[in-house]
Design brief:
This protein is an alpha+beta fold and about 800 residues long. The structure holds alpha-L-fucopyranose and calcium ion.
């Protein structure tokens, strides 16, 4: 039987309608007794209480910031499918996501009036009439619709178990070593265990229920979603099936097209019980007195590409479910763990064991700043690697503002791709923490953007190449959105392309370079066609643009030639030139790029000794001198314009800017500050900021980053900040322990990657380097630094491991 559900949760509704067999309604509170022991794996997040023990409340607002319960739940994901596991005793909830389920439909946001209005916007800027320029841009230049589409929740799988009054030794955990969430407890003399993992090889989420005695597992499984008009039915062969279409976005395109939902989705749960009975009743599957149960969850949408939504979600689901349900849980688990470990195990980090590690994770977060728990920083680092693997597998969509985990139809900032820092930050640890493959989805997205962005370049700017502004979505929209003070920034695509360029620097892979080159060339082309000469010094600058989201003293952020743009462009033109040289192509363009690069506005040091954020020395007069964005410091990290040794005056100006900005900001902005202080070589200052990032103000109980609200970039930026304390590579050299905080006198890391094609294992003791093993991946030149000690090799032997000992880098045989 099929029921239609509209905007509320089917589980709660049908229970009210009388289908309930097992105590789902307002169960008396469960009493927890006994102290569960910590899990065996030190790489675990764990807790002594469920994240929640009730069905999601119904009706629930569609536009919701993640609840306090949700940020206690534990995430699993296979890159595409995600679940938040709540671990309730009476009510288990798995909040589900599929990474192509976004609102809206294919669309082109370019405003046809923009091209004619842009010269006047530029003239007003050159004339110092910034607010007038912003007003004109609001009227004529911004995208239609003005907002992009949101990433949306798929729904929930709920399992309602019999009431339990007293529960002993409850524990739930997430084991990062096996990418598996567990729940275990004892009630009525029976110990129940639950295991949840998201398999990439089998494209299902598996839930395994077992009990210490036969015949003890009884529950009622249901599904629900906030998506309007979705249906749920239980099939006669014991599947739960939810079908629906995605939500609409707001606004219309310039030619009046509404943003109605055009994606279809299906989620299907197969319930396989051993012993007992399984029956389908309405929109529920009911299991009674089973010995063990496996639930397999598959889901898909009709999304094929940003312009094609014609796939058959039912066929996709039935393919993966058909394959997976032919395998035993042991086979599924083994394949999952093998596959996951091939990525996760590449890096280990030991910052020293601590007794504090025996406490539940939320207690450790509360206590981290007080000291004595360096292992929590190691866990935070490995959690970020886990989250990247779980949200960004090849073939899936890139990690968005929430990775893949979102329980709303209208999440904060649409849970989109904000590309004036946030998406780039998501990938900061990808290369250094040895997860190169997780960048494949980013490459695929930028390839799409180079197509949609070429249209925007042509129709909006009359330019060649391609451009993307400060956000994009699954439809690869590239126009300026939200308002000119946020959106009128043409650098998003260029920055993303530099993130992709890093991968070539780390790997030297020439096949990859050939794939990347058209993106570099097209991005550079856009700027060749649109840079203007600023009137005072005749430097080449962007216009209109802005320093991300920071208002200058004249009532808006809109201006020309902000420092960050010039830094990104110096990196971009240098990379494009090097790429063309390495490929032996485009001789004339190489010269043009080099000449253009030399004419870009230089960086300037302002009256407070700071690095100027803008062409003019406005920093101290800007309304928010503590602003979260530190865009003009891009040149130090992750960009390449500034270095403590190569450009010490500019590095000192960065330091001054950081002091003025202050240490505490939103999650991602706090994480950026850590990386910057690392690059200044001040590990103790960086560590002070890490203490704030890893406090309850910026880290939720499930260790998700708190902007607040939840935003995943801070997890990734924080992990990068930990790497940058131990190994840095830039300015042609690899630096060992360049920003080691005194709180971590002794430790060991293995498997970090560095530019030039190297893999590094390090150990240190009492703040001194003990031993470094450097494995050459490509046979390239090596320049290694530890403090003032430097070792240089013009070339290395591919595959060979070079060993250096002590702070003086004595060469040793392995
Ligand atoms: C940028 C930031 C905000 C937030 C948003 C998603 O606009 O300025 O702080 O992170 O992205
Ligand atoms: Ca993904």
């Amino acid at each position: 039987m099929r029921r239609s559900i509209t905007g509320t949760l089917v589980g709660a509704l049908s229970i009210a309608a009388g289908a309930a067999l097992l105590g789902q309604q307002a169960a008396p509170p469960v009493q927890f007794t006994g102290e569960a022991a910590p899990p065996a794996s030190a790489l675990s997040l764990w807790y002594r209480a469920p994240a929640a023990d009730r069905l999601p409340s119904a009706p629930r607002p569609a536009a919701a910031v993640a609840s306090a319960e949700w940020v206690r739940a534990l995430p699993v994901g296979n890159g595409r499918l995600g679940a938040m596991v709540f671990g309730g005793v009476v009510h288990e909830r798995l909040q589900l996501n599929e990474d192509t389920l976004w609102a809206g439909r294919p669309y082109d946001p370019v405003n046809p009036e923009a091209k004619d209005a842009l010269p006047e916007v530029r003239r007003l800027i050159a004339d110092g009439q910034y607010s007038a320029a912003a007003r004109l841009a609001t009227q004529k230049v911004m995208s239609k619709p003005l907002a992009q589409m949101q990433y949306q929740t798929l729904g929930d799988l709920t399992l309602a178990f019999p009431d339990a009054s007293t529960v002993e030794n409850y524990r739930r955990d997430l084991d990062l070593a096996t990418a598996t969430a567990h729940v275990s407890y004892t009630t009525g003399g029976v110990t129940f265990t639950r295991e949840v993992f998201a398999s990439a090889p089998d494209q299902v989420i598996a839930v395994r229920l077992t009990a210490s005695r036969p015949g003890q597992i009884s529950f009622e499984a249901g599904m629900g979603t906030l998506q309007r008009g979705a249906t749920v039915e239980a099939t006669s062969d014991g599947d739960l099936v939810m079908r629906g279409t995605n939500g609409a976005g707001s606004g219309t395109t310039a030619d009046g097209q509404p943003m109605t939902g055009a994606l279809r989705f299906e989620a299907r749960v197969r319930v396989v019980a051993t012993g007992g009975t399984r029956t389908a009743s309405g929109d529920k599957v009911i299991v009674r007195n089973a010995n063990s149960v496996t639930l397999l969850i598959a889901a898909a949408t009709s999304y094929k590409t940003y312009e094609d939504v014609s796939a058959d979600p039912a066929a996709r689901v039935s393919t993966s479910l058909g394959r997976a349900s032919g395998k035993t849980i042991d086979t599924l688990r083994a394949a999952h763990v093998r596959d996951y470990r091939s990525l996760f195990d590449r890096v280990t980090l030991d910052l020293g064991p601590t007794t504090a590690a025996a406490a539940p994770t939320d207690d450790r977060v509360k206590a981290f700043a007080a000291g004595g728990d360096p292992a929590l920083a190691a866990l935070y680092f490995q959690y970020a690697r886990y989250l990247l693997i779980s949200s960004s597998r090849p073939g899936s969509q890139p990690a968005n503002l929430q990775g893949i985990w979102n329980d709303s139809l209208s999440p904060p900032w649409g849970s989109k791709y904000t590309i004036n820092i946030n998406t780039e930050m998501n990938y900061w640890p990808a290369l250094s923490a040895n997860l190169e493959e997780t960048m494949d989805p980013l490459l695929a997205m930028v390839q799409d953007l180079s197509v949609t962005g070429a249209r925007t370049a042509r129709e909006m700017y009359g330019a060649g190449g391609w451009v993307t502004h400060h956000n994009t979505d699954i439809w690869r929209a590239t126009g300026p959105i939200d308002g000119p003070q946020y959106g009128l920034w043409p650098m998003g695509g260029a920055w993303l392309t530099m993130a992709l360029w890093d991968r070539y620097e780390y790997t030297g892979d020439s096949a990859y370079l050939r794939t990347l080159y058209p993106l570099l060339k097209g991005s550079a082309q856009f700027f060749l066609d649109t840079l203007i000469e600023e009137p005072t010094h005749h430097w080449l600058v962007t216009s209109p643009s802005l320093s991300p989201e920071n208002n200058h003293p004249f009532g808006t952020s809109v201006t020309m030639g902000p420092t960050m743009d010039q830094q990104i462009l110096r990196d971009l033109f240098a990379a494009a030139t090097k790429a063309a040289r390495d490929l032996g192509v485009d001789r004339d363009l190489q010269d043009r790029w080099t000449a253009t690069r030399a004419r870009l506005a230089p960086m300037q040091i302002g009256s407070a000794g700071q690095l100027q954020e803008w062409l003019e020395d406005w920093d101290m007069k800007a309304p928010e001198i503590h602003h979260r964005h530190v865009s003009h410091l891009y040149g130090l990290f992750p960009g390449h314009d500034i270095d403590v040794r190569r450009t010490p005056e500019l590095a000192a100006a960065v330091k001054r800017s950081l002091e003025i900005r202050g240490d505490q900001a939103t999650g991602w902005a706090t994480a950026w500050r850590i990386n910057l202080w690392d690059r200044l070589g001040d590990g103790n200052h960086a560590y002070e900021i890490l203490k704030f990032l890893l406090s309850p103000e910026r880290t939720y109980p499930n260790m998700f980053d708190a902007h607040p609200p939840f935003q995943i970039d801070g997890n990734f930026g924080g992990a990068s900040g930990i790497v940058e304390m131990l190994v840095q590579c830039d300015a042609g050299e690899i630096r060992l322990l360049p920003a080691l905080p005194s709180a971590w006198p002794t430790g060991r890391v293995t498997g970090l990657r560095a530019r030039g094609g190297f893999e590094i294992d390090l150990s240190w003791k009492n703040g001194s380097l003990e031993r470094a093993s450097v494995r050459s991946l490509t046979g390239g030149a090596l320049r290694l630094r530890r403090g003032e000690a430097v070792r240089t090799l013009d070339r290395t032997t591919k595959g060979a491991v070079l060993v250096f000992t002590g702070d003086t880098l004595q060469t040793a045989s392995r």
